[in-house]
Backbone:
């Protein structure tokens, strides 16, 4: 099983350039998330999509946009990259519904450097 | 979501039990305790979660105190591959409208180093 797949795994951008991080899951999960992790820090939620067709801001949404393309795919776009966006980006997904869920499945990360 | 407090680092000898504590004194009645770990810079991996009863799975055991203000993750026989950052997270399992979404709030976690 592929689980959560992120592309690209590595990317170097110049300040002001734009790019899209792609994420796809094959577990039929309803909810998907984008996190970022700066060196020595915990993960911080950027955006999430509770279900297909909906997206909401997380803790650090400024400078990002997202698209829930379909149930499988959730992309993160940087319109004008800044050095402060240098980070490792993780996509995750989870089931929806029930009262004892909440387990997140994470991708392997996309390492972005903005020069 | 309730705030958690974990020691920044711990050591453990290979083959011994690793006991990782977590304080969550402001936890509310419906909040669950989740544990994740992150090996090197890989994506976090779910370990276990619980509400009030102790839980055990193939990876670990979770002991939650009766007042639910603290918990301990136990790795019964730690191996070198268990060296990782361990995150204790407290949250409600379901969001508005009954939709469950995992808006996990990750702190700094505990760096567990397992020594030969």
Residues:
């Amino acid at each position: 099983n592929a689980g959560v797949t992120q592309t690209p795994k590595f990317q170097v951008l110049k300040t002001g350039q734009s790019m899209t991080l792609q994420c796809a899951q094959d577990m039929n999960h309803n909810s998907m998330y984008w996190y970022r992790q700066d060196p020595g820090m915990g993960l911080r939620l950027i955006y999430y999509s509770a279900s297909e067709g909906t997206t909401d801001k997380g803790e650090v949404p400024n400078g990002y946009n997202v698209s829930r393309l379909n149930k499988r795919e959730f992309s993160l776009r940087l319109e004008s990259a800044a050095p402060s966006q240098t980070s490792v980006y993780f996509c995750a997904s989870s089931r929806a519904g029930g009262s004892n869920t909440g387990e997140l499945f994470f991708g392997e990360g996309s390492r972005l450097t903005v020069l | 979501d309730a705030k958690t407090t974990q020691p920044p680092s711990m050591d453990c000898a290979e083959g011994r039990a690793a006991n990782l504590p977590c304080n969550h004194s402001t936890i509310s009645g419906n909040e669950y305790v989740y544990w994740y770990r992150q090996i090197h810079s890989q994506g976090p991996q779910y370990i276990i979660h619980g509400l009030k009863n102790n839980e055990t799975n193939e990876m670990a055991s979770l002991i939650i105190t009766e007042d639910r203000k603290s918990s301990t993750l136990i790795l019964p026989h730690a191996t070198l591959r268990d060296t990782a950052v361990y995150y204790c997270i407290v949250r409600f399992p379901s969001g508005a409208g009954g939709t469950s979404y995992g808006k996990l709030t990750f702190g700094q976690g505990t760096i567990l180093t397992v020594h030969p």
Observations:
- The mean pLDDT of chain B is 88.
- DSSP finds no helices and nine strands in chain B.
